[in-house]
Specification:
Strand order of the largest sheet: 6-7-8-5-9
Radius of gyration: 25 Å
Helix content: 40-55%
Number of domains: 4
CATH topology of the largest domain: Rossmann fold
Shape: flat
Distance between the termini: 85 Å
Largest sheet: 5 strands, parallel
Number of strands: 12
CATH superfamily of the largest domain: P-loop containing nucleotide triphosphate hydrolases
Strand content: 5-15%
CATH architecture of the largest domain: 3-Layer(aba) Sandwich
CATH class of the largest domain: Alpha Beta
Amino acid sequence: MIFQNNFGQHQRKHRRKRGVILTTQGLQKLQAAKYETELEENSGKRYTLEAMSDRTGLSVDTLMKVLKCESGVDKQSLKYFFHAFGLKLEKDDYYFPQSQGDRVSQPPDSPEEPEFPEGQVRLNSLFYVERPLIDAKCSQLILQPGVLLRIKAPRRMGKSSLITRIIHQARLQKYKTIYLSFYMAEKAVFQSLDTFLQWFCASITLGLGLPNRLGNYWDELFGSNISCKIYFEQYLLQQIAEPIVLGLDDVDCLFQYPNLADEFFGLLRTWHEEAKNRHIWQKLRLVVAHSAEVYIPLNINRSPFNVGVPIELPPFTQEQVQDLCQRHKLDWSTQKVKALTELVGGNPYLIRLALYHIYHQNVTLEQVLQTSLTSPGIYSDRLKALLISVEQEPELLVALSQVVNSQTPVELELVTACKLQSMGLVHLHGNQASISCKLYLNYFSDRLS
C-alpha cells in the first residue's frame, strides 16, 4: 500500500512537470534582443534556426517550441535562450500552462501547425519572416516625435503585417494606436472631401475610444481641411496625453479620386510639417502604406510622398525562404529552395501558400514547379483573380500582353505600369516593365498571346 501511494505521488509529480511557455512580454523581449543582435553581429541578416541552435546550444525542435509559444519547454532551456542574447529570464517572461490530464493546453488562437496564408500574419505567428533591417528600423523610428513612415510594396508583400508590428511596438511604449484600412470605407464616402474627412475623423475618434464631437468643431465657414485640422488639434490631441500612432493602410484607394487625394495627402503633409515646430503635433506619428507608385499629379510642396522615411519591402531572399521551409519542417536542398523562390519571384504570399500545401501533402514541390495555364494547381484562385482584374481594364490587358511576349523590358504608360506593379505582376525600371516571376509568365504568356 505504501508502494502504491508513493507510485501515485510519483505519477502526480510527473504530470506536473509540464515545462513553461513564454508570455507575450517574454516573447517580445526575446525578439527585440534578437533583432538588435542581428543588426550588430550579423549585418542585419536574420539568424536561421541552425545559427540560433549553435548560439544557444538548444536543438532546432526546442527553439521552434519556444518561439511558437504553444507547448512547454524546461525553464533551463529558456534561460539558455535568453542568456544567448544578453537577457536574464524574469518571472514575468514565462508561465506554467494549465493541464488537462497529461495534455498541455494551447492558447485558443495558436494553431498547432502552419496556418493558411491569408491577410496579415498574426503577431505571435512562427511563420512571420522578419526583414531584420526594416523591422528593427521601423520599431525605432516610430518612437520619434512627428515621424512619417511611408511603406510601399505590391499587394500581398507584407505591408499590413509590418504595420501591425509597428503598432504593437508602439503599444509596448503605452502609445495610443489606430489601424485604418481605406478598403473599409464605402464608395459613397469618397464622393466628397467633406464626407470623407468626417468619416476619417469619426473612425479615428472611435479607435481612440472618445465621444464623437464633430458637430462641435466642424465649421462650413472654414471648410473641410481646416475643420479636420482643428478637430485633431483642439480635440483628439488635447484629450490624449500619450503619443498617437496612426497606421493608414491601402491609401492608394484614393488614387481613383485625384481631387480628394490631393487635398487629403496635402493635409497629412501639413500635419507632418507642423510637428517640426509645435509640440502638440509631435504626438502624432503616421504610418502610410500603399501598393502603387504615386501616379496622380500632386503638388510637390503638398505631397507626403516626398517627405518622411520611405520603407520599401523587397521579395524574400533565398535564405529567408530556406528558413521558412525549416519552420514548416521541410528539409530541402538549396536547389529546391532556389527553384521555388525563382518560380514566384520571392513573393511572400505565394511562397507560404506553396509551403502550406506541401506541408499538408496536398501537393509536391515538383507539381508546384509545373504550374501552367492548363494546370494552375494551388495558385488557381490567385491567377484567375489577377486575370479577371486585368481583363476589366483593356489598357492593362494590352500592356501585360506586351510584357509577357517580349524578351526585353517594355516601355509602358505611367498609370498602366503602376497599376500592374501594384498587382505584383511586373517589376518597373523607370517606365519600363518586365514580368515579375516565372509563375506569371507561364500562366499569362499563352492566355494573352
